[in-house]
Amino acid sequence: MTNDSNQPRSLPVELTTEEHAFKTELLGAAERLDRPPNDLAARIAARLPPPKQVHRAWGNKVPILALAAVGMVVCLGVGVWLGDSNAKRAAGSGTGSMSVQPEPVFRVAFAGAAASATALALGPCAQRYRAAGLAPLIDDFEDGDSTPLPSEGRFRDWFLFFDYDREGQVARTLVPETAPGREGGQALHLAGKKLQDWGAVLELSFAPYFCYDASAYGGVTFRARGPARLSVGVRENRVVPTKWGGTCEKDCYNAHVEVVELTDRWQRYKLPWSVLRQRGYDMPPLDPATLHSIQFLVHAEDTPFDFWLDDVAFLPRPGGK
Amino acid sequence: MSLAVPLPCCWPDPATSASECEVASEEDRILRAVRQHLSLVFRVLRRVGLSVEDADEAAQDVFMVLARRTAEVPGPAERAFLVSTALRVASDRRRQQASRPTSALTVELPSPDPAPDELVELRRARAQLDEVLDAITPEQRTVFVLVEMEGFSAPEVASTLGIPLGTVASRLRKARENFDSMVRRLHSLGQQRVG
């Protein structure tokens, strides 16, 4: 290792043109490669403590039962918590209290194995966000970013996941663009070449680690322009794996889906909850009180693709306000 | 929603108090900070010497620190706070690395953009850059990374690191000399191999 502080000073020598080009090459490599993994932001978001404004599904009638259940889970979970090396580091930085506080309970819930215990003890949707039905617009992309409008407890960004085949490149930066045929309005543009494995999915988790109660609404709606074939899915908390903020442990990902064929013209599509169906026979209808996320999926067989998305919103409930 | 505009109350339920809305805004602020500064934090962690795998974990730790201390960090100071926290977290991790055996397994996270041949070349160049930066003392390296690679001004670096402006200037001068000297040496070695 070089340390010039103890060496006699010498005049710096200018780099030759070739040496300068070499230096530029090294710095350029860092510019290209030093990028966070695509899912790192999502993983950080998942580690954040949940917001404290929680509406209990059972109202305020059974807080003692809930606290008792929480206490049991904490007793079980603290062992898991203390056994986890990451958790130990967190404890070392000042969060090692073993008192029964809401926050550690949720951290135990995030820790994997204990999550199902917590979910069983409290019921999968004992903690939930409840949309009041007053702010149906989820995102119109006019703000130019990938964050939905912060309404009714919806607090996560749009994320795009896609398979990594060399032949397929999907627009990965979710920056809204000026939409053709929309008189200057912005929309989200997603395009990709042939994908080989499973495809690409644009997803918005409403409030991960909670159930999102959208029963004040009657479905979802959006404007889009293709051509493309989209599987529009709404996922209940129970079909999402625990590691992504749901409560599912096996046979997960079975969203309630409707396939939509986009044309090459802007159109509004309306999907009442009742048209969204799960795979399989005799599957239950969507329970809009227990939502996790909304997805726009393009299967690999439907790639290449090129479509625009805009004005994603909830539909009013039939007969509602 | 503009990044510059404070969040409105995000919970139109009449039963929700103003303080609860503030809690939600704090969470949103952290998520915005993640979106705005994650790339910077990750780059700094990599460039002060952490592996991809360590930088991944360290970046998470950095934002968890912000989540714990949101109330203490005014908005305009957020970037400096995250960078100085990243430097501390990286320093801690390097100390831990020094006291544990090196794993033979290097985790390479996927980088889908470059073509495979180009990726090999980029990784070779990136490894050489690490070699160059490793030849600079950690103090000089930090200043060099922030100024030369991240575009911080000298006063910003002084403020972020809590050191006098003159110290920033002298570390930067030495770092540039050492960096160029190492570049020259590596380039010369490369030429000899080619020859």
Note down, in words, how this protein is organized:
The complex is a heterodimer of chains A (321) and B (195). Chain A is an alpha+beta fold and 321 residues long. Chain A has helices at 17-33, 40-47, 63-83, 85-95, 102-110, 113-122, and strands spanning 55-56, 127-130, 137-139, 158-162, 177-178, 186-192, 199-205, 211-213, 217-225, 228-236, 256-262, 267-272, 291-299, 305-316. Chain A is built from 6 helices and 14 strands. In chain A, strands 3, 5, 6, 9, 12 and 14 form a 6-stranded antiparallel β-sheet that branches. In chain A, strands 4-7-13-10-11 form a 5-stranded antiparallel β-sheet, with no helix packed on it. The model of chain A is unreliable at 1-5 and 52-123 (pLDDT under 50). Chain B has 195 residues and is mostly helical. At the A-B interface, helix 1, helix 2 and helix 4 of A face helix 1, helix 2, helix 4 and helix 7 of B.
Question: What are the SSEs and their pairings?
Answer:
The complex is a heterodimer of chains A (321) and B (195).
Chain A lengths: L16 H17 L6 H8 L7 E2 L6 H21 L1 H11 L6 H9 L2 H10 L4 E4 L6 E3 L18 E5 L14 E2 L7 E7 L6 E7 L5 E3 L3 E9 L2 E9 L19 E7 L4 E6 L18 E9 L5 E12 L5
Parallel strand pairs in A: 2-8
Antiparallel strand pairs in A: 1-2, 3-14, 4-7, 5-6, 6-14, 7-13, 9-12, 9-14, 10-11, 10-13
Chain B lengths: L17 H30 L4 H18 L8 H21 L17 H19 L3 H12 L4 H8 L3 H30 L1
Helix pairs in contact in B: 1-2, 1-3, 2-3, 3-6, 5-7, 6-7
Structural class of chain B: mainly alpha
Shape summary of chain B: globular
What is the class of the largest domain in chain B in the CATH system? Answer: Mainly Alpha
The ordered H/E elements of chain B are HHHHHHH
Per DSSP, what share of the residues of chain A sits in E-state strands of 2 or more residues?
Answer: 25-35%
Compute the separation of the termini of chain A in Å. 72 Å
> Regions of chain B with pLDDT < 50 over 5+ consecutive residues?
1-24, 101-112
Radius of gyration of chain A: 24 Å
